[in-house]
Amino acid sequence: MFKSIFLPLIAVAAFITLVGLLSQGKFDSILKRNEEANNSNAKVMRSNLKIIKIENTEIEVEVARTSEERSKGLGGRTSLAENSGMVFVFNQNSTPVFWMKDTKIPLDLIWINDNKIIGIDKNVPVEEGVADKNLKKYPAPSAVDYVLEVNAGFSDKNSIKVGQSLSGLEQL
User: Fold this and answer.
1) pLDDT at 171 over 80
2) Regarding the domain with residue range 49-171, which homologous superfamily does it belong to in the CATH classification?
3) Per-domain residue ranges for the chain?
4) pLDDT tens digits for range 115-135
């Protein structure tokens, strides 16, 4: 009987206290700390930005060098600015396989070897709700040293084609 009467009363009291604290702004400092941490992470990401070019098209890219950075990729992002993307750096003669795990943005995958585009997977769709084992795999067409991910449609919009050269990769 004790539990059936007092536990609901305690739950209601806790709820009323929480609502009261929220309405008085008592949690503002916690929210502000979280916002500052997010802004700090954004600054770190911005410091990792580089400019590369495909012919005359400039692209502002984040660089994924480590296996952890490559594994995360653009996963979890809900948008990608126009003319921006992510470059994945690999050792020579790598043949990576990409997938869209946790990726919420349709992408073009541009495969690069020796500063030349050797393949493009266009308009790679989001696969939300698909089990990891069922996600479509996108293998490199041959050995690559870079992979560039950009918004879906970027390649067609900017007339990006296999055989074109890139510049700025040496700074990565």
Assistant:
1) yes
2) Protein of unknown function DUF192 (2.60.120.1140)
3) 1-47, 49-171
4) 999 999 999 999 999 999 999
Element (H, E) at 2: helix 2-23
122, two tokens: 């266009």
Contact 103, 66 (CB under 8 A): no
Residue 111: which of 58, 59, 163 has the closest Cα? 163
Which residue is associated with the tokens 């084609």?
Answer: 161
Note the residue count of the chain.
172
- pLDDT tens, 83-100? 999 999 999 889 999 999
Helix (H) or strand (E) holding 76: none
Give phi and psi for 168, each to the nearest 5.
95, -10
The residue with tokens 């943005």 is 105
